[in-house]
Design a protein that fits this description.
The chain is 75% helix and 0% strand.
């Protein structure tokens, strides 16, 4: 028998070589990288990332604002950031000086404006919040007061100033009157809306249990209406702080509005710009304070 030998052909080296697989570069998310780190390092990384997320965008926005302001100042002659900052350092070096009844430091002017806002806003809250509960609770009273609120609420705040001057004969109570009549509407409306949003089932249960009106208010209405009421308070304090500057410009005396007008008469534009920033910062602090109060007393049903 003849044995046939089969000749095997080995593949060439070039045939055996396989093309390398393409390298895939994967970028892990920041959360995965932080999770892969040890616990202390991961915690620091998360805190650093959160801090950068909170700080960088506002800082970038302020930088853009300052650059735009500087560009506008070069084109219009408006005092720029550097000149305004130099004037602010001199101004705040002695914020509580007194050279007479109408020449006082910016600190006294801020305190006087806050005092007027506090009195007008306090009176508005003292009257507006209970009245909001009443018109939200009783349909007849709501229908009776609705046309009056709709008529008076859109009136410009400064339109009430001559009425205050005519009635009170003095600038101080007239300015407080303007703040009162301007800031009362948000508290009335928001409180009334909150009362109408209380589920009817709660009131039905109170009726079955024969709760008196005081129990209904303290146990049902007040906890449910509190978020709406605090929203109205926040809106009202913003309105009051906006109105006081315009009212003080017209009434005179000591206050931010009068100080701005006096600096305009002296053509001191740097101080006017500083006053604008002071008004904005104080208003921001007031709003944030009320936000913290709202979170502190938020009702958890």
């Amino acid at each position: 028998m003849t044995v046939v030998k089969m000749k095997t052909t080995e593949p060439k080296k070039a045939d055996r070589e396989v093309a390398p697989a393409p390298k895939v570069t994967r970028t892990l998310p920041a959360a995965a990288v932080a999770a892969a780190l040890p616990a202390p390092v991961s915690r620091v990384a998360r805190l650093l990332a959160m801090g950068l997320g909170w700080i960088v965008p506002p800082a970038l926005g302020l930088l853009v604002f300052v650059l735009v302001w500087a560009q506008i100042s070069t084109l219009s002659g408006l005092p720029g950031p550097v000149k305004t900052w130099a004037s602010a350092t001199q101004l705040f070096a002695h914020p509580f000086y007194q050279n007479g009844p109408n020449d006082q430091g910016i600190g006294w002017n801020v305190l006087q404006s806050l005092a007027r806002v506090g009195m007008g806003f306090g009176l508005a809250a003292l009257i507006g919040i209970p009245f909001g509960f009443l018109i939200g609770r009783f349909t007849f009273l709501s229908r009776m007061s609705s046309p009056i609120i709709s008529l008076l609420r859109p009136v410009s705040p400064l339109a009430w100033l001559p009425i205050g001057l005519f009635v009170f004969k003095e600038a101080q109570p007239a300015a407080i009157w303007v703040i009162f009549i301007s800031s009362i509407w948000p508290m009335i409306i928001n409180t009334a809306v909150g009362v109408t949003r209380v589920p009817q089932d709660y009131l039905n249960v109170a009726r079955v249990l024969r709760l008196n009106e005081w129990k209904v208010f303290t146990k049902i209405l007040f906890p449910a209406v509190l978020p709406y009421m605090l929203t109205g308070v926040r809106l009202s304090i913003g309105v009051a702080w906006l109105v006081i500057v315009a009212a003080e410009m017209l009434t005179g005396g000591v206050g931010l509005g009068f100080w701005v007008w006096d600096e305009w008469n002296n053509l001191n534009v740097e101080h006017i710009i500083i006053a604008i920033f002071v008004v904005g910062i104080v208003g921001l602090l007031l709003e944030q304070m009320l936000v913290l109060v709202a979170k502190r007393f938020e009702y958890q049903g």
